[in-house]
Write a structure and sequence with these properties.
164 residues; mainly alpha; Multidrug-efflux Transporter Regulator, Chain: A, Domain 2; 47% helix; 2% strand
């Protein structure tokens, strides 16, 4: 059994239903029911016959354990298997994201300190500061010749500027 598993891999659909049922310790009709319910879905041969992989057989054994030892119904088992699959997918995604992050950190460190990096900031955090200076070039009322003179007085008539 291990020779077949080693040469084809755990996901290779190589076992017909009678062999998979025997390996899992179940009746073939139980495997058909699990397939209909979507609990364990084997591959299909060209003639539409079910072909189970070693991973399928291991999953069938887990289904039997959950059902017999834990007393979980088939709907609960299906949900557990879906959640385990989702967790596995998320772990793989996390693994790939961690690799991408590490590669990005190595790329940044190879370039030396990035522009705008200041002491005291956390590693990899870029700080960008922009200084804005506004020049008022538009001519304001009372800015013409003789500014500060006339009826407005100094400061164009603002009460706080009228001191005398």
């Amino acid at each position: 059994m291990n020779d077949v598993n080693d040469s084809f891999g755990a996901d290779a659909p190589v076992y017909v239903i009678s062999v998979a049922a025997e390996l899992a310790g179940m009746h073939p009709q139980t495997l058909r029911q699990y397939d209909r319910l979507g609990i364990v879905s084997p591959g299909r041969a060209s003639g539409r016959g079910r072909r189970y992989s070693m991973r399928d057989v291991q999953m069938l054994r887990e289904v039997a354990r959950l059902s017999q030892e834990e007393g979980i119904n088939l709907a609960g088992i299906k949900r557990i298997l879906e959640l385990e699959h989702e967790v596995q997918d998320l772990r793989e995604e996390l693994f790939h994201l961690a690799n991408e992050l590490e590669a990005a950190r190595r790329a940044v460190s190879r370039r030396g300190r990035p522009a705008g990096h200041e002491p005291g900031t956390s590693r990899g955090e870029l700080v960008r500061r922009t200084r804005v200076t506004i020049f008022n070039t538009a001519e304001q009322p009372g800015d013409g010749p003789g500014r500060g003179e006339g009826t407005d007085g100094p400061g164009r008539g603002r009460p706080e500027d009228d001191r005398g």
